[in-house]
Amino acid sequence: xxxxxxxxxxxxxxxxxxxxxxxxxxxxxxxxxxxxxxxxxxxxxxxxxxxxxxxxxxxxxxxxxxxxxxxxxxxxxxxxxxxxxxxxxxxxxxxxxxxxxxxxxxxxxxxxxxxxxxxxxxxxxxxxxxxxxxxxxxxxxxxxxxxxxxxxxxxxxxxxxxxxxxxxxxxxxxxxxxxxxxxxxxxxxxxxxxxxxxxxxxxxxxxxxxxxxxxxxxxxxxxxxxxxxxxxxxxxxxxxxxxxxxxxxxxxxxxxxxxxxxxxxxxxxxxxxxxxxxxxxxxxxxxxxxxxxxxxxxxxxxxxxxxxxxxxxxxxxxxxxxxxxxxxxxxx
Length: 332
Ligand code: NAD
Ligand code: MG
Ligand code: MG
Ligand code: MG
Ligand code: MG
Hints:
Blueprint lengths: L3 E2 L6 H5 L2 E5 L3 H12 L3 E5 L6 H7 L4 E2 L1 H7 L2 E4 L6 H9 L8 E4 L3 H4 L10 E7 L3 H9 L6 E7 L5 H11 L2 H4 L1 E3 L2 H16 L1 H16 L4 H10 L1 H19 L2 H14 L2 H15 L2 H11 L3 H11 L2 H9 L11
Parallel strand pairs: 2-3, 2-5, 3-4, 5-6, 6-7, 8-9
Antiparallel strand pairs: 1-9, 7-8
The structure holds nicotinamide-adenine-dinucleotide and magnesium ion (4 copies).
C-alpha cells in the first residue's frame, strides 16, 4: 500500500527559507505561485517578455521576471511550462543558473524520465504533482482544503530532497488532503498510460465507435449522441463518487446486467493485449521519442488528427445539441 503524508509530517519553514521560482503561469503555475505566496514563501514567476500570462500574474500581486532571471535568483526552480518545451527552457534559461544544493522541481516526470533534461549531479530533482487541474488546486487551497499530491525525488544531492518536496506540497495545500510518495518513473509511465489507454484515447474511441455503430444502423445522430456521449458524464460522476458499485447501484438492473454481459465483449482480451503493447512503448521510450519528433516537426500529424475529428458527425451533432442545454457552458 502507498505511504501517505499529511500536514503534521511536513515542515513549512523549509520552503519558507528558500527562494522559489515558478516558471510558467498556466493551469498549474498560477496555482503553485499564488498558494506558495499565501503560505509565506518568497516566490517569483518566470515568463518571457511579451508572454500574455505576465499581466495576469502581476495583477495578482506576483513579481514577474524572465525565466533566466527567476532561475538565477532562486534556489528552488519549479518548471511548469508545457512538457514539450521544458527541455528548451531548461537549456536556455535554467541550466547555467544551477548552483550546488539548488533544487529542480517538476509537476510531471516526462522530461526527466525520458532524458530530455539531464540535470547536474549537485542539485536535488523533485516532483510535486497535484492530482487535479490547477484551478481546483488553487480553489481548494483558498477554501482551506487541498488536492492530494504525489511527490517524488529522482536525485537527492542534499539528502534532504524529500523533506523539501513535502514542505513545498504543504505550501500548496497538498498535505491537507494527503501526499503519496511515488517515483518519476511510476508517475510518468502511469500518467501517459492512463491518458492514452483509458481517459482520453480509450474513452473517445469508445464513444466514437458506439456513436458510429448506431448511426450506421440508421438511428438519428442526435439520439446516438445522447446515448453514447452526453450520458457518459452521469456515469463517470457516479464512478467518481462511489466507484463501479455506486454507478451500478444507481442505474437500472437491466443496465447493470448489460454492463456484466456486454462490457467484456467490447473490451476484450485483444484490447488488453493491445494495452500491454501501448504500455511497452511508453516504458521503452518509443512513444516519447515519436511525440517529441512530431512536436519538433511542427505537429503535422497532430493537426491532421485534430482536424479530422473536429469534422466528425459526433462533433457537429453535439455542437448543435448543446445549444438546447442552457446549463452546459461552452467556451469557444
Ligand atoms: P499550461 O499550458 O496551462 O501553462 C503553461 C505556461 O507556460 C503558460 O503560462 C505559458 O505562457 C508558459 N510558457 C509557455 N512557453 C514558455 C516558455 N518558453 N518559457 C516560459 N514560459 C512558457 O501548462 P500546465 O497544464 O500547467 O502544465 C505544466 C506542467 O504541469 C506540465 O509538466 C504538466 O504535465 C503538469 N501537470 C499539469 C496538470 C494540469 O491539470 N494541467 C496536472 C498535473 C501536472
Ligand atoms: Mg539559482
Ligand atoms: Mg495524470
Ligand atoms: Mg499527462
Ligand atoms: Mg439509457
